[in-house]
């Protein structure tokens, strides 16, 4: 075969994406009665009957076929039809000849085909009963069905055979709540566990029954039905399990067989990323768009405390639904964030921690009082929403008008001390008139003025929020346009001073003074800078002084140590001298004329 080509791809009508460096042989699908060699493999395939769908089995799948094997002269040597018993086997396992494996991998469910194999892909030089050596053989094959087989654990410990592929939705996640129906049996058919007819619900992350169940569920789609073969290490291991909670005894080291269906699952979303606002989707919404920030939303909901006390209803039992604009603090933060993630028609239940609810204060609502520090539960349905137009949906006039409105909204929020929300407004305002927009020359002055104003105001918000790096970035954007902009120099100098970069702050203040020598705010900032520099110099002087003192102290200690060592050395030399004198005396001739060796 050509590099990059699989036999199972031959005849598939869907186009394949060609990878760089790969050669993919493309050919039109076979017509009934047409014969063709499969990609220079030596296998010829003649289509006798079209199959269903477009899927083909892969090696490892469990296929069920009828076949009739014959020589070129028509002599039949094997047939499942004569026995009226189809053959089921794992594709690629060696159960059948190589050519038959490769041929079946090109077939669709219900398809009939006639394959012709050379001897090397058939029974080879030895042949078999009824097949002489080096014989070309033919197999007429009907692919009745196949079961996709998946090694879930990657080590053969959990084998999944897909009986029903389910819907084309996504897979569940660890946080999701699933509804499953299962029956678990031992190898001898003894049922050891079974759900009620309506199934059982649990969160995947919490696990259920044995480790294999959660691992398998994470690979399944809604409505999927499977058979699992679970080895002991993913079941109940060497200990087995005693009778409890209505489940039967599982002997040690037991292999379990599961019949499992994933009936449905409810997606659970950590809305704010800190597990303090958690949304569980009860009913999926329509389309691919969510309300997002700035949308006008219409919702109905029932709000209750953890003990079940309902404290508020909107759009329920004839009441008017609630309409509000997201990200405008018109409702509690948790409800606002949840609404911004919902699609039209979606229904969800959300748990909201006090931090995103009513906080530490007691609040009276329509139907009951919410105690301080209460966790809230909202069951919400998104009835409708109208999104703000995105910049790419607007003409240039609409963009500049929207930018101006957002800037004014930001100004109002800034005056009220709501700096974070004001900063978001300025960001949006700047986005409407971004440099990517195709504005005409006569529009540029207004557009540039809006950008500069939004960046400067955004920098002011960042300073209030102690986000000094963001303030520096925004002011630098302004100075790229207007290098002499005093406000940008002033605010960037403030940010530099806050992060301790006094040199950069001094440069910005110097430039600002050159542009506007009479600016009182700049002069006051310069005075503050000088004070900071004086304090910094004092700290540096003290630091260096301490370092000098340490060096002097170290030098004194070293000098004293040297003197002590010198005195000790002189004492040692005196002792050695005395011992030498004794040694010289002891080496004098004795009475017997011998010399005594002092060593």
From TrEMBL:
This is peptidylprolyl isomerase. One of its GO terms (molecular function) is peptidyl-prolyl cis-trans isomerase activity. Belongs to the FKBP-type PPIase family. It comes from the Eukaryota. Residues 1-24, 576-599 are annotated as: Disordered. InterPro entries: FKBP4/5/8-like (IPR050754), PPIase_dom_sf (IPR046357), PPIase_FKBP_dom (IPR001179), TPR-like_helical_dom_sf (IPR011990), TPR_rpt (IPR019734). It catalyses: [protein]-peptidylproline (omega=180) = [protein]-peptidylproline (omega=0). Gene3D superfamilies: 3.10.50.40, Tetratricopeptide repeat domain. It comes from Acer negundo.
């Amino acid at each position: 075969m050509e590099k990059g080509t699989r036999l199972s791809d031959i005849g598939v009508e869907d186009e394949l994406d060609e990878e760089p460096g790969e050669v993919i042989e493309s050919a039109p699908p076979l017509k009934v009665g047409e014969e063709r060699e499969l990609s220079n493999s030596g296998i010829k395939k003649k289509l006798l009957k079209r199959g269903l769908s477009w899927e083909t089995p892969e090696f490892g799948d469990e296929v069920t076929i009828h076949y009739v094997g014959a020589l070129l002269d028509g002599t039949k040597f094997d047939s499942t039809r004569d026995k009226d018993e189809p053959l089921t086997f794992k594709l690629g396992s060696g159960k059948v000849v190589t050519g038959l494996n490769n041929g079946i991998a090109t077939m669709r469910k219900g398809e009939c085909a006639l394959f012709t194999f050379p001897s090397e892909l058939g029974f080879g030089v030895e042949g078999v009963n009824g097949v002489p050596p080096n014989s070309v053989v033919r197999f007429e094959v009907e692919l009745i069905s196949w079961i996709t087989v998946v090694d879930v654990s990657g080590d053969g410990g959990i084998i999944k055979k897909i009986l029903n592929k389910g819907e084309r939705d996504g897979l569940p996640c660890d946080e999701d709540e699933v509804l499953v129906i299962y029956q678990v049996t031992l190898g001898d058919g003894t049922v050891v566990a079974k759900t009620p007819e309506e199934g059982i619900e649990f969160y995947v992350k919490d696990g259920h029954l044995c480790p294999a169940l959660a691992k398998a569920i994470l690979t399944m789609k809604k409505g999927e039905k499977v058979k699992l073969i679970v080895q002991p290490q993913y079941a109940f291991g060497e200990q087995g399990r005693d009778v409890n909670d209505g489940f039967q005894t599982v002997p040690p080291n037991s292999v379990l067989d599961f019949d499992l269906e994933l009936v449905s699952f409810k997606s659970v979303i950590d809305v704010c990323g800190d597990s303090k606002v958690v949304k569980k989707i009860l009913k999926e919404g329509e389309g691919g768009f969510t309300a997002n920030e700035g949308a006008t939303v219409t919702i109905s909901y029932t709000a209750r405390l953890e003990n079940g006390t309902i404290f508020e209803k909107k759009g329920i039992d004839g009441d008017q639904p609630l309409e509000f604009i997201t990200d405008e603090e018109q409702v509690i933060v948790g409800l606002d964030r949840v609404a911004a993630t919902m699609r039209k028609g979606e229904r969800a239940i959300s748990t909201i921690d006090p931090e995103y609810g009513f906080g530490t204060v007691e609040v009276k609502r329509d139907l009951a009082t919410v105690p301080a520090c209460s966790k809230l539960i909202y069951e919400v349905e998104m009835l409708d929403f109208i999104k703000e137009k995105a910049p790419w949906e607007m003409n240039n006039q609409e963009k500049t008008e929207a930018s101006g409105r957002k800037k004014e909204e930001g100004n109002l929020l800034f005056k009220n001390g709501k700096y974070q929300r004001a900063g978001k407004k300025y960001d949006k305002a700047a986005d409407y008139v971004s440099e990517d927009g195709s504005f005409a020359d006569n529009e540029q002055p207004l557009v540039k003025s809006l950008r500069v104003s939004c960046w400067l105001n955004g920098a002011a918000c960042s300073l209030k929020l102690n986000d000094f790096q963001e303030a520096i970035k925004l002011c630098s954007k302004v100075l790229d346009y207007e290098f002499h902009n005093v406000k940008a120099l002033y605010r960037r100098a403030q940010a530099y001073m806050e992060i301790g970069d006094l040199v950069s702050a001094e440069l910005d203040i110097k430039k600002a003074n050159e542009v506007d020598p009479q600016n009182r705010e700049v002069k006051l900032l310069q005075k503050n800078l000088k004070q900071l520099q004086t304090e910094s110099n004092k700290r540096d002087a003290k630091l260096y002084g301490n370092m000098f003192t340490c060096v002097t102290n170290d030098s004194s200690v070293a000098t004293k140590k040297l003197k002590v060592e010198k005195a000790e050395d002189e004492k040692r030399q005196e002792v050695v001298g005395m011992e030498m004198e004794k040694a010289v005396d002891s080496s004098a001739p004795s009475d017997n004329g011998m010399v005594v060796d002092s060593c």
